[in-house]
Design a protein that fits this description.
It is a single chain. This protein is of the alpha+beta class. It contains nine helices and 14 strands. Helix 4 links the parallel strand 5 and strand 6. The longest helix is centred in the C-terminal third of the chain and has 23 residues. The structure holds oxa(dethia)-CoA.
Length: 334
């Protein structure tokens, strides 16, 4: 049985938060040229949650963090560092993490935002694992939080059907952990040459030159070449998972669960088929939340922990891909 390279780290608690308004496919079909059936068939999404005007990423992040602290039986003062993964920060400065630390009452914990789009939660877990293994930090709160509705053009049917708002989080700690628990393998990669497949321009200078631009006409909103991202997601995620398993000497049949970024059900199903995984080995909840970018992997983790589908000793592989393009894996023994 392979031992964790970054051992002695456990999940102390998880949390999640959603805006109060649930938006169905039928609701979306009233505002843009699409149908509820098209959205469900092409993406697996049935509904998503959308924040009311003025609700910020910080608010959702704090609500999720409070739940995780309660689940962990920890106080905010036990947090050494808070990492917030988001592409919809409240402000560029200060970091959303600093606002979360202050609102939680966790001062003087360190605070750091990371910007890796949909890969943010898993990148955050990887950073936290390495920092805890260094011995300088005992307990780190990793949050993935997004108000994607702030950066969505609701007149662009190619993107507005996909995204939802949410926050999720995990508290990772060395306190009370045994050496066999922790991160067996991790990878963080990017290919910025393909940035124009998924990007958020805020001025004309950001727009790619040439006839292939997918620009939807509205600066400050997400631009996406859906077909290219789809292909990239399937091939790159499959390869990254195979590399993680090979590097750690773990067979795919030993995995209790793969927790992938919830981008599109068809992407997840193709990856599952290619890796010859059983349906119950790949967690899917995109039907209820849509693609929540940095929040999605943590939403899955929280549901898996709450429903006790994961138990101590299980092998779990987290995998994500998104804008950047950036992709990442993280293999854990719980
Ligand atoms: O988190 C990581 C970031 N994002 C992703 O992972 C997304 C990856 N991509 C996707 O999920 C899919 O590409 C989409 C769901 C965005 C689109 O699905 P698709 O099956 O790739 O559709 P398509 O772009 O190939 O378009 C097929 C047709 C086109 O019509 P024509 O040219 O065949 O007449 C589109 O104009 O569907 C049309 N279409 C729509 N029709 C109804 C595109 N969007 C819609 C829509 N409703 N919302």
């Amino acid at each position: 049985m392979p031992l964790p390279r970054l051992g002695g780290i456990r999940i102390a608690g998880t949390g999640m938060a959603l805006p109060s308004r649930q938006v169905s496919n039928a609701d979306i079909a009233q505002t843009v040229d699409t149908t509820a059936e098209w959205i469900e068939q092409r993406t697996g999404i049935k509904s998503r949650f959308i924040s009311p005007a003025g609700q910020t990423t910080r608010e959702l992040a704090v609500a999720a963090a409070r739940q995780a602290l309660a689940n962990a039986g920890m106080t905010p003062s036990e947090l050494d560092l808070v990492i917030v993964a988001t592409m919809t920060p409240d402000m560029a400065c200060p970091s959303t993490a600093a606002l979360v630390v202050a609102e939680l009452g966790a001062v003087p914990a360190g605070a750091l935002d990371i910007s890796v789009a949909c890969s943010g939660f898993v990148y955050g877990m990887n950073h936290a694992a390495a920092l805890i293994a260094s011995g300088f930090y005992k307990t780190i709160l990793v949050i993935g939080a997004e108000t994607m509705s702030r950066i969505t053009n609701f007149e662009d049917r190619r993107t507005c059907i996909l995204f939802g708002d949410a926050a999720s989080c995990v508290i990772l700690t060395s306190k009370g952990a045994v050496p066999g628990q922790g991160c067996l393998h991790q990878s963080m990669n990017s290919d910025g040459r393909a940035w124009q497949e998924l990007y958020l321009p805020t001025c004309d200078a950001h727009l790619p030159a040439g006839p292939n631009s997918t620009f939807n006409g509205k600066l400050g909103t997400l631009q996406m070449n859906g077909q290219e991202v789809f292909k990239f997601a399937v091939t790159t995620t499959q390869k990254a998972i195979e590399e993680a398993l090979a590097a750690s000497g773990v067979n795919v049949s030993e995995l209790a669960m793969i927790v992938p970024h919830q981008s599109n059900f068809r992407i997840l199903d193709l990856i599952r088929t290619r890796l010859e995984l059983k349906p119950e080995q790949v967690y899917v909840n995109i039907d209820r939340y849509g693609n929540t970018s940095a929040a999605s992997v943590g939403l899955c983790l929280h549901e898996l922990m709450e429903t006790k589908r994961l138990k101590q000793g299980d092998l779990v592989l987290f995998a994500a891909i998104g804008g950047g393009m950036a992709w990442t894996t993280s293999l854990w023994r719980l």
